[in-house]
Task: structure prediction
Amino acid sequence: MGSPGDPPEGTSEGVPGGGEEEYRSVVFDESFVRAARLQEFSAQERIGDHTPAVRRRPPMRRGLSRQALVLVVLIAVAFGTAIYMGVRHPYQTPAAKRPEPLRMTVIPLAPQNRVPGSADVEALYAHSPADQFRIGADGITLPASRRTAHFSDSQIITALTTAKDYLVESALDPDVLTGGASRPVRILLDPQQLDQFDQSFRSPAADGRHAPTGWLVRFDPARTELADTKVRVQGTLTAAETDSDTLEVSADHTFVYALRPSGADEKAEASLFTVRRELHFRFDRDDLRMHQAELLVSYVQAGPLACAEDAANQLRPLLAGETARAGGPAGTDPFATGSATALCGSLAAGAQPRL
Result:
């Protein structure tokens, strides 16, 4: 005879405790019931017009766990600290040095005798000290580069290459030499020097600050034209680290040009004109990245020129057969503190072709 809790027909055969025994391990606690998506209507609710026996419950909103909330707070604090230290940290990057104004000196070299000339340009070069010079950019050679304490090999090469590019554009570009262009030189300068550069061409002055011929080589096109575009060049480039953020490059080159009078026949006599340029460049890390340079010093000697000629704006060479006019350089007012002292040199006889 079964127990009072057994069904009238008895337990299922072969199963201890019948079908109830199968579900005794399943516990429907309160959290399980609350999480159920379906909920049975109560008896009172079923009296109404509800057709279905159950209803769907809205999804249960779960909040962040305590560990997740702590993690979010820690990330927010770390992010805020990083921003604060980035703005207020005590090791601020040193401010970049403001480029100094270019200091320039242009010295005319007057010939001692008549300027030699020849219709054969190659003969002129063959009988001058420029006979062994290289042609064009090939004469501006880069030295072997070595890294410094704070600059890599590639940075040294970048500084030297930028200086060479400046020399090529400012002393070998035919458009620049004939006074028709200045932009190829301008784009290689540090932006903070552009005002001085532009003022030099807008209002040329022999004041040691605003002479176009201090920035580049250009001839008066009304007087002179190139007899040969193959300019002879010889010189040196050197690079040195001045501090942890600055490189300086020194350039010392001699350029020799073959010139003839403007509009003259190709068979007209040509003469040689020599320009010695000593330029000092400075590069900070921004200049290296932008392929630009700060030009600090420009020291130029050029001849044959007449001392009385104004060489600040354009060079007006003495051509084949001409001699320097009597008289010294233009007058200098020692009370005008804003003006540079006029200088003029003598072009040695050995610097001219011996024909």
